[in-house]
Write a structure and sequence with these properties.
Elements lengths: L6 H7 L5 E4 L2 E4 L7 E6 L5 E2 L2 E2 L1 E9 L19 E3 L5 E7 L6 H5 L5 E2 L8 E2 L12
Parallel strand pairs: 6-8
Antiparallel strand pairs: 1-2, 2-7, 3-6, 4-5, 9-10
C-alpha cells in the first residue's frame, strides 16, 4: 500500500511505470516521468570497437507522452528509464522500437543524455546514433 492505493491500483493508474528484470540487470521506469511500456532482451552479441566485450541488446517500447492522462494521443517523442546491475565491462545497446520520427533531431546533432549513478552529472551520448523508420 502507498497511501490509500495498492500497488496494483497504482500500476493501473500509471501503466508507463514498469520494472523489467533480466537476471542481474534491471531496467525500470517506475518513477516520475518514467515511460517504458515494454522491454525485451535482444539477441545480438558481438565485437565493439575492435575489442571483444560483452554486448547486451535491449528492445524498448515507450508509452505515449501523455499517459496516464490521455491514452490515445499517439505521440512518443522522449524516453526516460533507469538501469541497475551492470558490470563495468558490459556494453548495453538500447533500441527504442516505437518512437515517433526523430531523425531530424539526431541528424542536427542532438543526443540522448545519461548519467552513471545518482550523483553524477548528466552527459551527452558520444559516438554514432543510428535510427531507422519502420512500421513497428
Amino acid at each position: 500500500m502507498i497511501g490509500e492505493y495498492s500497488m496494483d491500483e497504482l500500476r493501473k493508474m500509471h501503466p508507463q511505470r514498469n520494472t523489467f528484470n533480466f537476471g542481474r540487470i534491471t531496467i525500470t521506469s517506475d518513477f516520475d516521468s518514467g515511460n517504458l511500456s515494454r522491454c525485451e532482451e535482444g539477441d545480438e552479441d558481438g565485437c565493439v570497437s575492435s575489442i571483444w566485450m560483452m554486448l547486451v541488446q535491449y528492445n524498448l517500447w515507450i508509452s505515449t507522452d501523455s499517459l496516464p492522462y490521455f491514452k490515445n494521443c499517439g505521440f512518443r517523442t522522449w524516453f526516460y528509464f533507469g538501469v541497475r546491475g551492470t558490470l563495468k565491462e558490459e556494453v548495453l545497446r538500447f533500441t527504442v522500437k516505437n518512437m515517433n520520427h526523430q531523425s531530424k533531431l539526431y541528424a542536427s546533432g542532438l543526443r540522448p543524455v545519461y548519467r552513471l549513478g545518482t550523483t553524477a552529472k548528466w552527459r551527452r551520448q558520444q559516438g554514432k546514433i543510428s535510427w531507422t523508420v519502420s512500421d513497428y
